[in-house]
């Protein structure tokens, strides 16, 4: 296993602030310390060559975990071994073997072209010229950015900049790469390009940990999903197991000839309503088998159109967040 995490915990010490102006003023003189348990004992392993989606609602503890895994934050307790290193103890050696792309933070320099920043990284990592050029040429070709890397960074579009951020993170050929919201703010085409790049790097053996709120990223890239909520793992399995998590539930988009009501049918929940005749339903086939559902609807209405699908992954994730 390339990543081993045991009972990883992080408590933040912070000070309680008053709700009102008066209380806030009081707290300036007499502060009450409180402990925030951001990460409450995470245990997991990641195999070499995997792409793991690390999901959770806002404040679940994802960034805190990622900071500990990249070595910038000391945990309160617990153990992490990545590529044989303890990230926060052997940080200098460790960072030569990992890469990171943070969608909301840039590693490039605003006033200089990306190509100059790439050369800066070459010096920082002490990369040999021939190997550096070979990697750079390969990455530039894959991402189709030969013109772009010579323009000042501040002139680049977000999509162009993100491609360069990826090159910056991959130049020293890391074997584990952490991605935090790598496609945030990108248009559909740029997202596709970035995802294809991640897949290509993965096929060359790079292991990825991917934190994102974009479930398309997860569906297209991750083979495994770890969901955290309130600092704890609430789900850790394959993407297909995630789909099966709500088991028997399906979505049914149905159009009837006349106005239809659905609330009285056991096992059926209205997800959205286009009009009196067009509705999207959630059907729990454990409670009401599909055959029974169709028979029941046929008794009451004339079906004009109907499409049945597995529950979308965002609905499953929402239920996971709410259920835990
Ligand atoms: N420096 C800090 N001091 C005190 N509390 C903190 C600090 N950093 C984070 N927290 C708290 O720890 C918890 C976990 O935060 P964290 O940023 O890890 O969540 P997250 O899952 O990354 O959220 P998001 O999706 O919004 O980025 C939150 O309750 C947050 O308010």
Automatic annotation (TrEMBL):
Residues 23-255 form the ABC transporter domain. Keywords: ATP-binding, Nucleotide-binding, Transport. It comes from the Bacteria. The keyword ATP-binding applies. Pfam families: ABC_tran. GO terms for molecular function: ATP binding. SMART domains: AAA. PANTHER family: ABC TRANSPORTER ATP-BINDING PROTEIN, ABC TRANSPORTER RELATED. This is ABC transporter ATP-binding protein. It comes from Paenibacillus vini.
């Amino acid at each position: 296993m390339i990543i081993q995490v045991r009972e990883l915990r992080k408590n933040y010490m912070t000070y309680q602030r008053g709700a009102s102006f008066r209380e806030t003023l009081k707290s300036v003189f007499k502060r009450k310390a409180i402990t925030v348990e951001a990460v409450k004992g995470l245990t997991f392993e990641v195999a070499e060559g995997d792409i793991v989606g690390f999901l959770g609602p806002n404040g679940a503890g994802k960034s805190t975990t990622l900071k500990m895994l990249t070595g910038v934050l000391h945990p309160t307790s617990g153990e992490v071994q990545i590529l044989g290193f303890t990230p926060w103890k052997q940080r200098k050696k460790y960072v030569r073997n990992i890469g990171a792309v943070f969608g909301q933070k840039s590693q490039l320099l605003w006033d200089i072209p990306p190509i100059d920043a790439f050369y800066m990284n070459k010096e920082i990592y002490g990369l040999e010229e021939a190997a550096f050029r070979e990697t750079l040429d390969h990455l530039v070709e894959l991402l189709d950015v030969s013109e772009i890397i010579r323009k000042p960074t501040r002139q680049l579009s977000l999509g162009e900049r993100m491609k360069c951020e990826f090159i910056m993170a991959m130049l020293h050929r890391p074997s584990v790469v952490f991605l935090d919201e790598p496609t945030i703010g990108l248009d559909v085409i740029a997202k596709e390009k970035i995802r294809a790049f991640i897949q290509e790097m993965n096929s060359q053996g790079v292991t990825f940990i991917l934190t994102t709120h974009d479930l398309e990223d997860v569906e297209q890239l991750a083979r495994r999903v770890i969901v955290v909520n309130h600092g704890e793992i609430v789900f850790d399995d394959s993407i297909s197991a995630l789909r099966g998590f709500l088991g028997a539930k399906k979505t049914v988009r149905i159009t009837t000839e006349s106005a239809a009501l659905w609330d009285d049918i056991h096992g059926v929940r209205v997800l959205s309503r286009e009009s009196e005749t067009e509705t999207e339903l959630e059907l729990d086939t454990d409670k009401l088998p599909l055959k029974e559902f169709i028979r029941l609807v046929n008794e009451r209405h004339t079906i004009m159109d109907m499409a049945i699908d597995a529950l979308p992954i965002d609905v499953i994730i929402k239920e996971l967040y709410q259920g835990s």
